[in-house]
Specification:
The chain has 422 residues and is of the alpha/beta class. It contains 14 helices and 14 strands. An eleven-stranded mixed β-sheet has the order 6-5-4-1-2-14-13-3-12-11-7, sandwiched between helices. It has a three-stranded antiparallel β-sheet with strand order 8-9-10.
Length: 422
């Protein structure tokens, strides 16, 4: 089971959120529900593929150093060779470094040898070779902990847009990730003071699950103009940029993954046949479009029913294997734009995604219809014990999460109150 502990993050004073199956966080507007969702998203994804990020950073740093050095020492008549030379030379160095498993003490000598041989073979000057070699040695000798801290902090800052600590206070923010299964327990903790991060305890370098965060706005509204130069992804939040990438992903699957994907198609077919009556596909220019199977025509996203969009997104994420067993799906106020009847339909689909596909779900909501539908459908699908329900309560100028799984009426009493007042 996955558990995320949060303290002094944004509006959240204290929250301990368990994700055994489907977790619902209920509360009024502005009570920190989305802050919890962002914390869970960052706690899961910040550690993802750290090794790959380090390799990419090393490659880019070495390429930049060699490009500058080659340009300073040579006149390139062939401009294409100039663009290729630093990339090719970087590839030679990194391949030898990884394949031959260089020791720290031999990096300088071996790097210098590769650069000199390359320059000789390509009629290039190798003046002042000490400068790039020393920099490459420094890049390859960087401390792993420094790399990890850089990438994890960068991810959190991008998710929260540099506003992790409560504004106007000196309190230290804290996020703890804890995953327990039958074999072992994995934990990782980070703290932030003045929005600067420290890693507490063991560094987590291997992360298998992935989190996908569907925010209240529809990602499909960004798709329509992505092919136009005037529209960039810079204004999007990090969760939405990653979601957009997942929607357009074309993955090479292993045999086991292919088998799992085929088993998942039952839900995809049910959504297509009973709700969306269509599917997302790549257009000729590489952007995403919605194809209506009833009329055999493309439908502009601006002309789609707002309520259909979340179903279409879920359909695509499952269809292209962006969501797989063990992943975490976070949906922020999914009831937005949905009639109560469709809120019940969506609740059932989410329960099936957990029950049939093994995908853990965190849903924020202030809709009693949707929350009650989750409760009822989990009971119908015989997984009620894997449900958790939290209600956000004010504590001075901040908010805490209260586990009300054993008394969900506390949620309904609060959310029905406006209707009772009428």
């Amino acid at each position: 089971m996955l558990e995320i502990q949060i303290r002094n993050v944004g509006k959240i004073k204290e929250a301990c959120i368990e994700l055994p199956g489907i977790t619902v966080i209920a509360g009024l507007n502005g009570t920190g529900k989305s802050t919890i969702a962002k914390s869970v998203f960052a706690a899961v994804n910040a550690w993802e593929n750290i090794a790959g990020k380090i390799r990419r950073d090393q490659r880019q740093s070495i390429e930049d150093e060699l490009e500058h050095w080659l340009e300073q020492n040579n006149d390139f008549d062939d401009i294409m060779f100039f663009f290729e030379a630093h990339e090719e030379l970087t590839q030679h160095i990194l391949e030898a470094y990884e394949n031959e498993k260089w020791e720290k003490g031999e990096i300088y000598e071996k790097t210098e040898k590769i650069i000199k041989e390359y320059c000789t073979n390509n009629n290039l000057d190798d003046n002042d070779i000490e400068e790039p070699v020393e920099e490459i040695v420094r890049i390859l000798n960087r401390n792993l902990d420094e790399y990890v801290r850089f990438f994890v902090e960068q991810y959190y800052q991008n998710v929260f847009r540099d506003q992790i600590n409560p504004i106007g206070t000196e309190k230290t923010a804290f996020v703890n990730y804890r995953k327990t299964d039958e074999e072992k327990t994995v934990t990782s903790s980070v703290s932030f003071q003045h929005n600067k991060m420290s890693i507490i305890g063991k560094i987590l370098t291997l992360q298998q699950e992935n989190a996908i965060y569907i925010e209240t706005h529809s990602v499909l509204d960004f798709c329509q103009n992505l092919g136009r130069r005037s529209n960039r992804t810079g204004g999007m939040t990090l969760p939405t940029r990653e979601l957009l990438s997942s929607l357009s992903a074309e993955r090479k699957l292993t045999f086991a993954q292919q088998q799992e994907q085929e088993r998942n198609q039952k839900i995809v077919q049910d959504i297509a046949e009973n709700i969306t009556h269509g599917h997302l596909q790549k257009s000729k220019n590489g952007t995403i479009e919605f194809w209506d199977e009833g009329i055999n025509e493309k439908i502009e996203f601006s002309n789609m029913s707002a309520g259909l969009k979340i179903f279409t997104v879920l359909q695509q994420l499952i269809s292209n294997y962006s969501l797989k067993r063990g992943d975490v799906l976070i949906v922020d106020e999914p009831e937005v734009n949905l009639h109560p009847t469709w809120q019940i339909t969506l609740a059932e689909i989410l329960v099936r995604i957990y029950k049939e596909l093994g995908i853990f779900i965190l849903a924020n909501s202030h809709s009693p219809y949707f929350i009650r539908a989750i409760e009822v459908k989990m009971a119908e699908y015989e997984c009620a014990l894997q449900g958790r329900y939290y209600f956000m309560k004010q504590d001075e100028n901040a908010y805490i999460s209260t586990d009300v799984t054993e008394n969900t009426n506390e949620i309904y009493d609060a959310l029905y109150q406006p209707l009772n007042l009428l």
